[in-house]
Specification:
Layout: E1 8-11, H1 17-26, E2 30-34, H2 45-52, E3 59-63, E4 81-87, H3 88-93, H4 95-98, E5 109-113, H5 120-132, E6 136-142, E7 157-160, H6 164-173, E8 180-183, E9 188-190, E10 193-194, H7 196-210
Parallel strand pairs: 1-2, 1-8, 2-3, 3-4, 4-5, 5-6, 6-7, 7-8
Antiparallel strand pairs: 9-10
Helix pairs in contact: 6-7
């Protein structure tokens, strides 16, 4: 079941340099940091800047909500941000999500996080709408109970699982793969401390699945 292209791996939002550098070292393609007001993982912009300048390899994702757009200015212009990530419900309910106002972002992609499953038709409608606006959109969806129904939109979605075990099961058994996987707090031993052993085990499964 090996395939040529490996699904991307993203992790976050991270809270410290040690976890960020470890994630880079084991091969994560993306690391995310939070500027989301109200989140207990929100970092100061200058701290994110300091961490990002030590990283080599992974691209940076910044998590926001509709109340925290102003926080982007605290990052400084020297950080290259690959994607801005918003809760899907924020994006759908905001004026700029409905197209009543156009905001130009300095990131080439928009990632929309959802804690609920979405029908394939709703996903297609969202993706088509944002592509018509010239935006590259990825939708982050829960993966625990996902089946073959999302195969046709696989290139647009990241899957997030509630445990590393569920993710490993998907990697070894699924006949299709999304564009990426996103790891969150299930990859931690405790708040702000990644489960390094568990991540190493996961990376072995990833390597076996994609023939690396």
């Amino acid at each position: 079941m090996n395939q040529t292209m490996r699904s991307s791996l993203a992790i976050g939002p991270l809270t410290n340099l040690q976890d960020a550098r470890s994630s880079a070292a084991v091969g994560f393609d993306f690391v995310s940091f939070s500027l989301e007001r109200g989140s207990h993982r929100m970092l100061a912009g200058n701290l994110i800047w300091g961490i990002a300048t030590w990283l080599s390899g992974p691209r940076i994702v910044i998590e926001l909500n509709t109340f925290s757009l102003d926080e982007l200015a605290t990052l400084g212009e020297t950080i290259s941000v690959h994607a801005l990530s918003f809760p899907l419900e924020d994006w759908s309910s905001s004026a700029w999500g409905r197209g009543e106002e156009t905001l130009e972002f300095s990131a080439p992609e928009i990632w929309l996080r959802s804690e609920k499953t979405i029908s394939v038709q709703d996903l297609r409608n969202l993706i088509d709408l944002e592509q018509d606006r010239g935006r590259i959109v990825r939708v982050l969806l829960p993966g625990d109970n996902v089946g073959e129904q999302l195969h046709d939109v696989a290139e647009h979605i990241f899957l997030h699982f509630s445990s590393l075990a569920f993710l490993k099961d998907f990697l070894t058994s699924s006949t299709w793969m999304p564009t990426g996987f996103f790891l969150g707090q299930e990859a931690e031993e405790e708040f702000g401390l990644l489960n390094y052993e568990g991540i190493d085990d996961l990376m072995e499964v990833v390597a076996a699945r994609f023939g690396e």
